[in-house]
Amino acid sequence: MFTQFITLCKDALLQARRSKVLTVLIVLCSLVLIYLFFGIQTETGGIVEDEMRLSVPLFNVNTPVDPVKFANSTMRVTMRIILTVGVFFFIFAFSGFIPQSLAKGSADLLLSKPIYRWMILLAKSLVIAVVSFFTAAYLYFGVMLIVWFKSGFLTDDFILPFFGVLLLFIPLLATMTLLNVLTRSTVITVIVTLFLYFVASMVGGINMGPGFDDDPAWLFGTLKVLHYCLPDFVAMSASVVGTTRGEVLEFDPFGHALIYSAVVFIISTVILNRKNYTV
Amino acid sequence: MDSKIIEIDNVHKVYSGFSQKVHALKGVSLSVEEGSVFGLLGPNGAGKTTLLKLILGLMRPTSGNLDVFGGDTGKPGNRKHFGYLPENHKFPNYMKGADILRIYAGLSGMPASEANERIPAMMQKVGLDEKVLKMKVKKYSKGMQQRLGLAQALIHRPKVVFLDEPTDGIDPVGKVQMRRIMKQARDEGTTLFINSHLLAEVEAVCDRVAILNHGRLSWQGAVRDINVLGNLFRFTVSALPEAALQKLRTEYKRFSASEDYFDVEVPGEEHVTSVIDLLREHEVRIYGIVKRHKTLEDFFMEAVNNAERQGEAS
């Protein structure tokens, strides 16, 4: 079974490479780095992220008064880019990964091979995780070099938020996998995942606000149930961005998201094992 | 050719939907011997694809026993000796020809180094130029995709190959080549299980045939048995008078007439002279008498029609 699993991983990697996902990810990360390199201006007197100017001449580097503050601000900007553009790109890029293998005409051929069906999901998820990890690592080291170049400040303090931000993608991946297995449709997967992401974010946002226990009871009761069932992307994002201010990464929302992901992955595997994909 | 590698005993398959149940297979029993070429025939909706999927372990039967190599094909390990070319298969668009062969060989458990060594020989075997290995499969014609499909089904040296409409979309020259490949595979000891609508193709390649109709097995046996069944003769004659026609119809069980010939099944070859006497009696000129073998098509139509008549009667 080892040969088969390695082959499934090779196939998924080939898919990432040939479908240009890998190329587009690298290009997008490079664009972010270019933006950060040229777009962040340091000023005497320190820098506040909201006051960052969008354009500066090349090599216009003024030594900041507080390089740590500058590094934190740059990292916060990077996190916000990942949490907005990155999330959408992740959903668009990887939602078609499993449907291609389970498409009409391909499914029977693949499933007739001497493999366990769960291996298909595991191999695809593993490759998506590896691709995401290396893309994030490329971005991380790029940002650190830019910060170092612009402020002379080199630190490894920002590894934690990068791991945190990767954890945030796991419940998205689990949701996409379940939808892939159920529908075999990239379009439905994209739409429903985005919808769930917005619903989960909205519920998370309301939960963070003061009025979660307000009337009407049925509405807030429903929201509480949803908050209990869905991952809290708002809390995770806030926690990741907060770490750049020296806060610790909160375990609760991430633990909750990991449990959600594990349950959804198991359900996906059970469905894939039982489903008859009629050609 | 004496060991059975596929044994199906009283298999039923019921598809349960929200509003209705479809009984796709109704107590099918058949067996396939090692090294044989087995043809599964049947009209559309007969249950051929369902049966194939059950054998391949893609679905579970509702009831009955299904043994392949003495085991349950639902377990992945028991599928390692399978090669499969599905009907209307579609390879992932991002793959090139070489990727298909490498990946599917790997999925069947063949090491990458061995697969790489086999690829040129397989391409030659199925009549594909090695240059097309570097092309993405989305650029392949239907015929090229079919040949590549056959190559992926054979690359890992399977013991049994399931071919669903193998010559679909292939030009006449390609069909002949495809038959040659199938025969070659059989000569190498591979068991072939062919699901096809093309009766002439099945007749040319298969040793044994099963006819499936409305989920029931109408007939199974050797192709040679079909050819020797009955004594069907074609008489090429001048116009038949009505009296002769009536007599032929009443005296012989299987009679069909056309403008300048008629076919008649006689109980034994010696009875041909009786037909000649009858024709002479009515002053009918005889231009030729030929013994006809039943074609698979004749037999298939007969089996399907009989099954339908039995169904109507019950």
Descriptive account of the structure:
The complex is a heterodimer of chains A (279) and B (314). Chain A is mostly helical and 279 residues long. Chain A contains 12 helices and no strands. About 6% of the residues of chain A have low confidence. By secondary structure, chain B is an alpha/beta fold. Chain B has 10 helices and 13 strands. A 6-stranded mixed beta sheet of chain B has the order 5-6-7-3-8-9, sandwiched between helices. A 4-stranded antiparallel beta sheet of chain B has the order 11-12-10-13, covered by helices on one side. Chain B has a 3-stranded antiparallel beta sheet with strand order 2-1-4, with helices on one face. In chain B, helix 2 crosses helix 3 and helix 2 runs parallel beside helix 4. The two termini of chain B are 38 Å apart. In chain B, 40% of the residues are buried. Classes of the chains: A mainly alpha (279), B alpha/beta (314). The interface between A and B is medium-sized, with 30 and 34 residues.
Topology:
The complex is a heterodimer of chains A (279) and B (314).
Chain A: H1 2-18, H2 21-39, H3 67-94, H4 97-102, H5 107-111, H6 117-151, H7 159-167, H8 169-183, H9 186-208, H10 217-229, H11 233-242, H12 251-274
Helix pairs in contact in A: 1-6, 2-3, 2-6, 3-6, 3-8, 3-11, 7-11, 8-9, 8-12, 9-10
Chain B: E1 4-16, E2 21-33, E3 37-41, H1 48-55, E4 63-68, E5 82-85, H2 97-107, H3 112-125, H4 142-154, E6 160-164, H5 172-187, E7 191-195, H6 199-205, E8 208-213, E9 216-222, H7 223-228, E10 232-237, H8 242-251, E11 254-257, E12 261-265, H9 272-281, E13 286-292, H10 296-313
Parallel strand pairs in B: 3-7, 3-8, 5-6, 6-7
Antiparallel strand pairs in B: 1-2, 1-4, 8-9, 10-12, 10-13, 11-12
Helix pairs in contact in B: 2-3, 2-4
